[in-house]
Amino acid sequence: MISYIASRFLRAIITLLITVTIVFVFIRLSGDPAAALAPPDVGQEVIDQYRQKLGLDQPLWRQYTTYVSTLATGQFGYSIHTGLPALQLFLDKLPATLVLGGTALLIALGVGIPLGAIAALNRDTALDRGVMAFSVFAFAMPNFLFGLAVILTGALVFGTFFGASGNLFSLGTLLAPAATLGLASMGAFARFARSSVLETINKPFIIAAEARGVPRTRRLLRHVAPNAAIPLVTLLGLSLGGLIAGSVVTEQVFAWPGVGQLLVRSVITRDIAVVQFLVLMVAFTMVCANFLVDLLYLAIDPRIRVR
Amino acid sequence: MTAEILKVRDLSILLPEGADRTYAVSAANLELKKGETLCLVGESGSGKSVLSQAIMGMLPPQLTVESGDIRFEGDLLPPQRSKLYQKLRSRKIAMIFQDAAASLDPIRRVGHQLEEILLVHGVERASERRDRTMALLRSVRLPDPERIYRSYPHQISGGQAQRVVIAEALALGPDVLIADEPTTALDVTTQAKVLQLIVELCSANHTAVLFVTHDIGVVSEIADTVAVMCDGVIVEVGSRNEVLETPTHSYTRKLLAAVPKPENISNAHSQNSPILRVKNLSRTYAIKTGLFTSRPLTAVQNVSFSLHRGETLGIVGESGSGKSTLARCVLRLEDPDIGTISFNDEDITTVTGAALRSVRSDLQVVLQDPFSALNPRQTVGNAIAEGPLIHGASREEAAGKVSDLLKKVGLPEQAAKRFPHEFSGGQRQRICIARALAVQPKVLIADEAVSALDVSIQTQILDLFRELQAAMGFAMIFITHDLVVAASICDNVLVMRNGNMVEYGTANAIFTRPKETYSQELIAAIPGGIPRNPPTDTNATELR
User: Fold this and answer.
1) Cα end-to-end distance, chain B, whole Å
2) Which of A222, B155, B294, B389 has the fewest CB atoms in 10 Å of its CB?
C-alpha cells in the first residue's frame, strides 16, 4: 500500500515537472517575449534592454533552471498590465470557479449516477431508453450552445438573466451555469453508471447473495453499489479535465468572473506571466485530482490495498 | 418411514420464444429424502441448473413455470422470486455455486460476508455473529480461521474459497443443500477434499444434498440416488448402482460410455531419434512486489522430455504447476531462461526471424477455450487459410486446404463462409484443430483442449485427435489437468508440480504403478478412480 501511494506520488511529481518544461518551451516558441512586451516602434536597443532586464539574453538552459527554481520558491511572476502578482489575480478569481466547478461536479455525480442506476434497474423499459436518450443528448450538447439556450430561455420565458449577477454563491445564480458545465459529465456518468450496475448485478456473487437470503435492497446497497462504483472512479478522474476545459467556455458565456475568464483575458492581452501561471495551475489541479482519485481507489477496492 | 423433504412434481418450465426448445425443464419429477444425496447428472444445457434455480425460487424472469409444483416438507413453496422465499433461503434450502471465488463479494472481508447471512436471518448480537462465524470457519477445516476471517476473497485460494462458500451455505443448518457443480473448477486433489467435506458435514447434520454435476466419477463417489437429465427431461432415476451398472435409458448408456477410458499403450516409436527434445528447461518470472522490488517466481524448473513422431506425450498437473508455461516456451512464444529446445535435432531455443517463422509452422497449438480462440470477425475459412497463406501457399491451394481440412475434422464445406459464433463449443474446437493443422505441423500442442467441453463432446474431440494423428502422423503434446483424459490418449506422461517434473514415464506405468507419492495422490484423488480396461503390462518400459 505504501509503495502504491509512493509510486502514484512520484508519478504526479514527474507529470508536474514535464508540464513545467512544456510550458517553458511553448512560451519560448511563441515568439520573442521582449519584442511583444516593448512598446511598438522602438529601436533594437530598447528591445535589447528589455531582453536583458527579463534575463532573455542568458543561455536557454540557464533560463530554464532560473525559471524552475523561482517557481519552486513560490514566485510566479507579475502581470504586465496590472503589476499585480499572478498568484494574487488567480486567488481572487479562484473561489468563483471552485464553487462553479464543484457545483457542476455535484450535479454530474448526483444526477448522473442515480439516473444511470435507475436505468439499469429498469433495463429495456421506456424509462431506460428515455434516460439513455437524455444522456446522449447531455454529452453531445456543446456547452456554449446549451448555455446560450439557457440564457435565452431565462430572458424570454422567465424575464431574468441566468448569468452572473448579484450574489455568485447563491443557488439561484449558480444553478444555470453549473448545470450547463456539468451537463456533459452528467451524461457520461449516467451511461457509465448504467453499464457498471448492469454488469455488477449479474455477477455470481450477487446471485449467490440472493441465494443466501440477502434482501434485494441490502444486495443493491451493500454489494452492487460499492462494486459498481469502482469503474466510476476512473471516469471521475477523466471528467475533471472536461470540467476544467468546459469552465473556460461556460464562464465566458455566463459572464462568470472566474479563472476561466481571467485566462481568456490574459491570452488576449498577451499577459505572459499570468497565462503561464494559469496553465501551470490547471495542470497542477489535474495532477492533484488524479492523485486523489488514485487514493480513492485505495479506499474502495481492497484488491489494490492488500495484495 | 423415510420422509421426503423436497418433492418436485410434474414441473415444466417454459423457455422464452425463439429458444432451441420449448421447455427448459419438462414434466420433471424428483424426490429428495432427508439426509440423502441425489446426483442430478446431465450435460450443459440439459436443464439441470434451471431446475435447481427453480427450487431456490430464483428463476430468471424470462423463464416461467407453466405447470407443476415444488413442495418442501409437504408445503408448497412460494412463487418464484417472491419475497417469502428470502426466509427459506439459507435457513431451509441453501445453495453453492460452481465458481466459489466468484460467488464472494470481492471488496468485502470473508468474515463479514458470513456474518451478513446471520444478520439478515435475524441473529441480532454482533458478538454472537462473530462467534458463530469463527465456529463455521473451523467446521469447514480452514487453516488459520482468524486470518481467513479478515481476508478478502482474492487473498484466499480456490479450495479455501469453496470451503468458505460451504460454510456460508451451512451457516443456518439447512435441510437441503443444492450444490451446482461445486468442484468443477477445482484441482483434482482439492476436489477430492471438498467432496469429502460436503459429504461429511451433510451426513453429520442430516442435510439432504442435491448435487448437480456432469462428472460421472463424482457421481459414483458420493451419490445415493442418481437422476439423469437430457434436454429438460429427467430420463432416468434410480439408486447409484442401478443407474451406473444397469442403465435403462439409452442416453444414460451413451453418457456412461462417453467417459474416456485408457487405451492400450504401445511404445513402438522409441527407436528413431526424437522430433522434439527439451533439455533442462527453466523459466522464472519476476513478480513485482513494489516500486523497485520484485521476487522471482519459478514457473518451470529443469524439465526435460523427448517426443517422437506419431507419439503423444501427456503433461499432467494441477493449475499453477507450470504446464502452460512449458508449452509456451516450446512454442517459442516465451523464452526460457535456461535449457534447450531442439526440433529435428536442430536447436531452436534462440532462433529468430525467418528461421523462427519456418519453425512456427511445424509447432502448432490448440487452446482451451474455443470461444475466445477464434477471431469473431473472421470467417472460419479465412481463419484456417491464414496460416498457409502466410507460409507461402497460393489462394487456390489455401482454399483447397480449407475444404479438405473441414472435411477431415467433420464439418461441412459451407462452414468456411460462416463466422465462429454460429458454431457450438465442440464445433469451434474442431475449427481450431483444422486451423492448427492447416500448416502441416510436425508437433501439435493441445493445451487443455478438451477441458471446456461436455463429456460426450470431449470423447468426440479426443477421437478426432487420435484419427488425425493416425492419418497425418504428427506428434502431440497433450496438456491436461484431467488424468482420465491423459490416461485415455497419451503414450507417455510427464507429471508436473510447482514447476518441477515429478514423474516421467509411460502412461501405463504411471497410471498402474505410480512411483512418486504425488502421482499416487493425484491418481487416488480421481473421483471414482480411473475407469479401467485392465491394461496389458507387456509393453510398459520405464523412460526414466
Assistant:
1) 59
2) B294
